[in-house]
Amino acid sequence: RPDGIIIALDGPAGSGKSSTARAVAARLGYRHLDSGGFYRAITYAALRAGIDPDSWGSLTHAQLDTLDVHGHATETGYRMTVGGRDVSAEIRAPEVNAHVSQMAAVAGVREWLMDALREAGARGGLVADGRDIGTVVFPDAELKAYLICDPEERALRRLREQGADDLSTEHVRAEAARLQGRDQIDSSREAAPLRQADDAVVIDTTQLTFDEQVARIEGLARERAGIDRNADVS
Ligand code: CDP
Ligand code: CDP
Questions:
Q1: Overall average pLDDT of the 175-181 stretch
Q2: How far apart are CA 130 and CA 112, in angstroms?
Q3: CB 37 within 8 Å of CB 91
Q4: Edge to edge, what strands does the sheet with 143-148 contain?
Q5: Could you give the CA distance from residue 185 to residue 16 in angstroms, rounded to a whole number?
């Protein structure tokens, strides 16, 4: 591939995929593709357009086109817009969290997105994170990592990231239950369910610091790409 290898990071919600992918991409001079951002942007757009979630299962490609959802390549990753407006903040809202798995379970929606996701990897030099990157989107990725982590640790990380003041056991458990609810839908759906690819390296991040897990994946990536740790990757 002209620009480098493809690295696929999959795993449940809050396991650290996206932040790790961003950091690894920065270190390698690769681009980061947050595939969840695409599902989030479609969900946000459908909610905003007032389309009843109960009818999402029958959304046609033409209807999806009219939602005007796009991912724009930047130097370092992809910026999501809906109707030409940047929605980076909006797609992280609790309402989107609560509905995104329902949208992502729709086979027609996944099909509709596939070309755009694959296009992002056409030249390589990509770190992509999601649920089905190593199994469906880029089954020939040179490096696949599957990140796992205890649910309460994932909840704690998520709450800290949001700057939550209340980190009581009760609050952490409620967030863990929300994450596991999403994992349950993502793993049990028929279309591209969340699962580990046979050739993925499984990394349990529960006891790792963020820097440790980034270094671990960066090391594996350099090995697979045949690039020396000290060499210039560009
Ligand atoms: O960051 P977080 O783990 O909370 O979620 P995300 O990666 O932004 O993904 C949001 C949702 O999009 C997931 O819960 C899945 O339902 C869906 N998704 C998917 O189905 N396939 C992907 N490759 C990425 C995300
Ligand atoms: O993309 P995904 O939902 O899998 O997770 P994320 O949004 O990348 O990570 C959730 C949060 O956990 C981020 O704020 C990371 O910095 C943090 N994190 C951590 O505190 N310690 C780790 N070992 C890994 C991630």
A1: 97
A2: 16
A3: yes
A4: 31-34, 126-130, 6-10, 143-148, 201-204
A5: 19
* 14 close to ligand 2 (CB < 6 Angstrom): yes
For ligand 2, mutation pick of 157, 194, 212 (most atoms within 8 Å of CB): 157
Surface-to-core class of residue 34, CB atoms within 10 Å of its CB (0-12 exposed, 13-18 middle, 19+ buried):
buried
pTM score: 0.95
The ipTM is 0.96
Using CA atoms, how far apart are residues 9 and 35, in angstroms rounded to an integer? 10
Site to substitute for ligand 1 among 33, 87, 186, most atoms within 8 A of C-beta: 186
164 lines ligand 2 (CB under 6 A): no
Q: How many CB atoms lie within 10 A of CB 72?
A: 10
Cα 65 to chain centroid, rounded? 22
Mean pLDDT, residues 3-12 taken together: 97
4 assigned to a ligand binding site = no
Digit-coded pLDDT (tens) for 39-58: 999 999 999 999 999 999 99
- What is the tens place of the pLDDT at every residue in 106-132? 999 999 999 999 999 999 999 999 999
Output the pLDDT for position 137: 98
Please check if 16 is assigned to a binding site.
Answer: yes
Q: Looking at ligand 2, which atom is closest to the CA of residue 208?
A: 23
Q: Which of 10, 15, 18, 19 to mutate to test the pocket of ligand 2 (most atoms within 8 A of CB)?
A: 19
- Between the CA of 227 and the centroid of ligand 1 the distance, in Å, is 30
| Residue 22's pLDDT band (cuts 50, 70, 90) | very high
